[in-house]
């Protein structure tokens, strides 16, 4: 959480001349009551554009590994797990944005990022947890996308007779040239909404890729030779490699690191419109994954490889067309991860100021002037950070051909932290006080059903010299006294001490940090009406919405934390097993 919440960027007035790099006198704007110290997007997209961006961030390189995951986990168990993960992802996406934008505690504070949502209840630890997980996930994905481009394009252009056997010019130089021409310009864009068109193309390519696998996979002959679909289902309810598939499928839909960027780019953000975006995006993504996964597995059964395209002949037009669609998807998906990585670096290095504006105050008139800083010739801060990200991902992609051991494990760690553990911690932390009240009420209702003891406790004894005063047991102001004492049988099996500790930590952090913010910027009623953030929220319609915490979501948040820890352990162990047995796929 940033303690100084001054506006990052001061926009020049429309009636004043403005030249790039020059100074523009502008009147001082009203104070922005905003916790998140980030530069707001200038362009926004409709529901369709937001859906395209979200689907593109979900359906990346991982979709071609779904058939292999179903083979390992079992067709029935894997299908059920994929459907559940889709629902969990939809729930966590809505939970995160609703917490930040529509919860009664935070809707007036301008919380616009995942890390700020965790920093309010948990301080610096919450910020580091989210930013580290986001960067790990995004960086690993970007390197993987470049590797896929390097392995795929030479085969498509006929430069390699054997995949992976080409020279430096045929592989590395081709990757550098094409990525510089396509990936870098797209990654340089300022606002996420600018990628809506390319995301639509990428989603269309994913659809054609799924259609290719469904049409050209030899499903009929494979199923017939195995004794029919009924026999396959009977023998593949759940397989011995379930946890290998479990580790892959649980992070197949990971996109929470893009949640706030996509939501921030949505025009007229409301809870219902955001729910529509997540529902449409997750439904389409689940359908694509299920169709490709089931048809790919049924087409090759036990011979299904980690990259299902490797099961098709190398020299056929259809297979190379599918590889071309995969490469196109990688070109248009890389920039989305670059946006996430750039956001992390801008937050850590520049306090959220992406454009690098310098604001000066005239000592005589008090008039503000603003100018863009250009520390490297014609490149501003946004371009510089984007190029640094590209170069740092390009180097490992040039030097090695298989980053499987590193990328798979870091993907499992970062993905599970962002997809499940982070949202669960956020909900318990932000609503910590309400959660403690709910637990206290449950204990009180249970204690009322038991006969009360008439024995006088030590705290009921009068103080010496005062017959009317009782001994007061010292308590934590955010930890109800009712939680001290004997507990029911379910207290320990449900790990309730852990959840109470998290909620207590979150409640204390929320009280301290929001109080400090109010003391610096004034309470909500004191904010000047018509301020920047207030006006934008009135326009979006979100100012009137408030979503109260509920028992069901408390249970969901606890489940997500437990599920995330189990999925992370399963993902790490399964990836180690995959590496040891040399079955990690290299897309070609």
Oligomeric state of the chains? single chain
Structural class: mainly alpha
CATH class of the domain at 38-420 and 568-580: Mainly Alpha
Give the DSSP E fraction (strand runs of 2 or more residues).
under 5%
Family: Belongs to the amino acid/polyamine transporter 2 family.
Organism: Nitzschia inconspicua
Keywords: Amino-acid transport, Membrane, Transmembrane, Transmembrane helix, Transport
Pfam families: Aa_trans
Walk me through the topology.
Elements: E1 24-26, H1 47-58, H2 66-73, H3 75-102, H4 114-156, H5 169-187, H6 196-216, H7 219-225, H8 229-235, H9 242-249, H10 259-264, H11 271-300, H12 317-350, E2 357-361, E3 368-372, H13 381-399, H14 404-430, H15 432-448, E4 462-463, E5 466-470, H16 496-521, H17 532-540, H18 551-580
Antiparallel strand pairs: 1-3, 2-3, 4-5
């Amino acid at each position: 959480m940033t303690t100084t919440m001054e506006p990052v960027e001061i926009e020049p007035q429309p009636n004043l001349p403005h030249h790039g790099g020059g100074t523009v006198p502008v009147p001082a704007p009203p104070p922005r009551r905003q916790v998140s110290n980030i530069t707001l997007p200038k362009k926004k997209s409709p529901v369709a554009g937001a859906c395209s961006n979200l689907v593109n961030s979900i359906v990346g390189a991982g979709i071609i590994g779904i058939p292999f995951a179903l083979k390992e986990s079992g067709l029935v168990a894997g299908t059920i797990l994929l459907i559940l993960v889709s629902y969990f992802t939809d729930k966590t996406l809505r939970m995160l944005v609703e917490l930040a934008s529509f919860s009664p505690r935070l809707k007036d504070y301008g919380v616009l990022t995942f890390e700020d949502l965790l920093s309010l209840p948990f301080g610096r630890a919450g910020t580091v947890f989210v930013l580290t997980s986001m960067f790990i996930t995004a960086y690993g994905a970007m390197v993987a996308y470049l590797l896929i481009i390097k392995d795929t394009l030479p085969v498509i252009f006929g430069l390699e007779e054997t995949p992976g056997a080409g020279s430096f010019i045929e592989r590395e130089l081709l990757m550098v040239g094409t990525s510089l021409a396509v990936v870098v310009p797209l990654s340089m864009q300022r606002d996420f909404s600018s990628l809506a068109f390319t995301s639509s193309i990428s989603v269309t390519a994913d659809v054609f890729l799924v259609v290719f696998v469904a049409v050209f996979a030899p499903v009929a002959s494979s199923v017939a030779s195995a004794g029919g679909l009924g026999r396959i289902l009977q023998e593949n309810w759940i397989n011995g490699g379930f946890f290998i598939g479990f580790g892959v499928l649980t992070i197949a839909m990971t996109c929470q690191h893009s949640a706030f960027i996509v939501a921030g780019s949505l025009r007229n953000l409301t809870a219902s419109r955001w729910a529509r975006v997540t529902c449409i995006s997750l439904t389409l993504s689940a359908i694509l994954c299920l169709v490709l996964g089931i048809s790919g597995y049924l087409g090759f059964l036990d011979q299904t490889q980690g990259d299902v395209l490797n099961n098709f002949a190398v020299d056929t037009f259809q297979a190379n067309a599918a590889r071309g669609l995969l490469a196109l998807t990688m070109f248009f998906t890389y920039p989305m991860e670059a946006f996430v990585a750039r956001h992390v670096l801008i937050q850590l290095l520049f306090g959220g100021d992406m454009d690098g504006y310098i604001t000066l105050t005239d000592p005589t008139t008090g008039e503000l002037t603003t100018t863009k800083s250009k520390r490297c010739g014609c490149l501003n801060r946004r371009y510089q950070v984007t190029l640094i990200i590209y170069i740092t991902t390009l180097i490992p992609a040039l030097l090695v051909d298989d980053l499987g051991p590193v990328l798979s494990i870091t993907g499992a760690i970062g993905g599970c932290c962002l997809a499940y553990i982070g949202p669960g911690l956020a909900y318990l932390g932000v609503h910590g006080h309400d959660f403690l009240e709910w637990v206290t009420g449950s204990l009180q209702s249970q204690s009322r059903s038991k006969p009360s003891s008439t024995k006088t406790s030590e705290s009921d004894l009068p103080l010496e010299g005062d017959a009317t005063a009782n001994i007061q047991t010292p308590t934590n102001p955010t930890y109800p006294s009712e939680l001290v004492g004997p507990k029911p049988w379910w207290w320990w099996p449900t790990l309730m001490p852990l959840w109470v500790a998290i909620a207590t930590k979150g409640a204390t952090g929320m009280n301290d940090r929001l109080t400090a913010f109010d003391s610096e910027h004034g309470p909500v009623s004191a904010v000047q009406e018509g301020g920047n953030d207030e006006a934008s929220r009135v326009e979006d319609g979100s100012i009137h919405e408030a979503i109260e915490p509920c028992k069901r979501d408390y249970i969901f948040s606890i489940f997500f934390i437990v599920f995330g820890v189990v999925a992370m352990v399963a993902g790490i162990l399964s990836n180690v097993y995959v590496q040891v047995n040399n079955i990690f796929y290299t897309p070609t």
